Amino acid sequence: MTYIISLGGSLIVPKSGIDWKFLKKFRELIIKQIQSGNKFIIVAGGGSICREYQAAASKVVLLSDEDKDWLGIHSTRLNAHLLRTIFFDMAHPEIITNPNHKIKTKSSLIIGAGWKPGWSTDYDAVLLAKNYKAKVVINLSNIDYAYDKDPNKYKDAKKIKKINWAEFRKIVGNKWIPGLNMPFDPIASKSAEKLKLQVIITNGKKLKNLENCLNNKVFKGTKIQ
Fold first, then answer.
1. Do 182 and 176 touch, CB atoms closer than 8 A?
2. Where do the domains of the chain lie?
3. pLDDT string in tens for the chain (225-residue length)
4. Dihedral sign, CA of 146, 42, 75, 185?
5. DSSP string, the chain
6. 122: closest CA among 47, 18, 40?
7. What whole-number distance in Å separates Cα of residue 89 and Cα of residue 87?
8. pTM score, two decimals?
9. Which CATH class is domain 2-224?
């Protein structure tokens, strides 16, 4: 089975620096899954490093949304090169930056990154699912579940275990803003609904939980379909 994984930049490079211990364990899990017959396209996010660049530049000059997006895109590409390096013996040598360009490869692993302004890596992941005929996108971040509203602001926020696209899109809205911190971005959600994709949101730090998800066992996370 082919899985598209949108790997949050906060997992690759949290505020404390590159999390090489996480990356080492993540590599071990993906290799184990490939050996069992699964294939992966992993799209690197920008995460906190992206927002740090955007915030720093904004203190110097007035940035357009396009400028903010390009900073984010290049942050994802740097993170993707890091992933490509640690999977040097497994992954296709070219990093996908255009999700509409289908690569012909015998490799069971492809690494992707951001493409162009106005498009998040979540949206790139959805396009890759379409082009590679994958049915499942797994969004890995630092949260166990999506919530009906921001749990950091609202104490009565309720976690979501299963939801349909129509209801989920009421939560995330319809507009993409550079640096937007949503469980799955609004434009990607709209496209995923049209393609009838299943999107799973779960905590990438909890690798045993991710393994259960990939092995079709009980796991903590949000299923959207």
1. no
2. 2-224
3. 999 999 999 899 998 889 999 999 999 999 999 999 999 999 999 878 888 898 999 999 998 988 988 998 999 999 999 999 999 999 999 999 999 988 889 999 999 999 988 788 889 999 999 999 999 999 998 889 988 887 778 888 889 999 999 999 888 877 766 555 667 888 889 999 999 999 999 999 999 999 999 999 999 999 998
4. negative
5. -EEEEEE-HHHHS-TTS--HHHHHHHHHHHHHHHHTT-EEEEEE--HHHHHHHHHHHHHHSPPPHHHHHHHHHHHHHHHHHHHHHHTTTTB-SSPB--TTS----S-SEEEE---STT--HHHHHHHHHHHTT--EEEEEES-SSEESS-TTT-TT--EESEE-HHHHHHHH-S---TT---SS-HHHHHHHHHHT-EEEEEETT-HHHHHHHHTT---SSEEE-
6. 47
7. 6
8. 0.91
9. alpha beta
The amino acid present at 123, given as its one-letter code, is: Y
Which residue reads 């992206």 in tokens? 50
Residue with tokens 């999700």: 99
Residues 137/197, Cβ–Cβ less than 8 Å: yes
